[in-house]
Amino acid sequence: MSNTSNTLAPLSQRLKKRFTSAVSIADAYNEITLEVPAQDILKICLALRDEDDFKFDELIDLCGVDYLAHGDVEWETVYATEAGFSRGVHRMLDGTPPPGKTGDNATCRRFAVVYHLLSIDHNERLRLKVFLPNDEPVLDSVVDIWSCANWFEREAFDLFGILFKSHPDLRRILTDYGFIGHPFRKDFPLIGNVEMRYDTEKQRVVYEPVSIEPRTLVPRVKRDDHRYIDKGSSNGGAN
Question: 127: which strand partners?
């Protein structure tokens, strides 16, 4: 279903009138996004579910987001020389905010939990967003409000390391037992921390340190102008 600004306006007005503690209310991608403080998540979700003006009785999805280095361009370069690009990719792997994003605002808005809600009675959708700090990404669980949040919150915990207070069974759901780290965090190494294989002597799966050597990749520049044509080649191909 495609929403327009006119159809979103009534919901936006009701949200602004009801939730004065909201950080922001915006129309993004033809859907209202309501950003709220972490400490108000339970009372706001209860109101969104139970009050007649909203009736968001279905939680469609809940997911985590890591905004580390958000907006930074890893491959940004000024020029390409005969030897290749001016620099290779530079990644921030220590978990600290990227250059230019230091301070309280960067550390307090690294992680986010996003809820997608549906009101069948009003035929409306709502995106709810809560930002969490880098050092302690902890948020109240909404399992008692929408029971389907159980597995969604476990997934956000498993992949992003976001903790949900009062969750009845907060444990990993996708990664293996004893998995180290949270694979969807931007500072998680792409090669992982350990690798697994089947040991024929022990007759079981064993875990070992990663044998892949991390390295920075620089894209190869292929050129086919007159400077790179092999004049002695019969087919005139490039070197």
Answer: 33, 116
Chain-centre distance of CA 114, in angstroms? 10
Residue with tokens 């279905």: 58
Percent of the chain clearing pLDDT 70 (strictly above): 72
The rounded radius of gyration (Å) of the Cα atoms in the chain is: 24
Q: Which residue has the higher pLDDT, 74 or 183?
A: 183
- Relative to beta strand 80-81, strand 124-132 is unpaired
Residue 60: HSE in the Cβ half-sphere, 13 Å Cα cutoff: 12
Query: Which contacts of 34-41 are long-range, i.e. CB under 8 A and separated by 24 or more positions?
Result: 34/126, 34/127, 34/128, 34/129, 35/129, 35/130, 35/131, 36/128, 36/129, 36/130, 37/130, 38/130, 38/131, 38/132, 38/139, 38/140, 41/130, 41/139, 41/140, 41/142
Q: Which H or E run includes 14? A: helix 5-18
pLDDT in tens, 98-129: 444 545 555 678 999 999 999 999 999 999 99
pLDDT at 174 over 70: yes
What local confidence, expressed as pLDDT, does residue 231 receive?
Answer: 57
Name the token pair of 10: 């009534």
> In this model, does residue 95 exceed pLDDT 70?
no
Distance, in Å, from the CA atom of 122 to the CA atom of 126, rounded to the nearest integer, reads: 11
Phi/psi zone of residue 192: left (φ > 0), alpha (ψ -120 to 50 degrees), beta?
Answer: left
User: Which neighbouring-strand residues pair with 111?
Assistant: 66, 132
- Angle at Cα 107 formed by Cα 186 and Cα 47, nearest 5°? 95
- HSE, CB side, 13 Å, CA atoms: give it for residue 217: 7
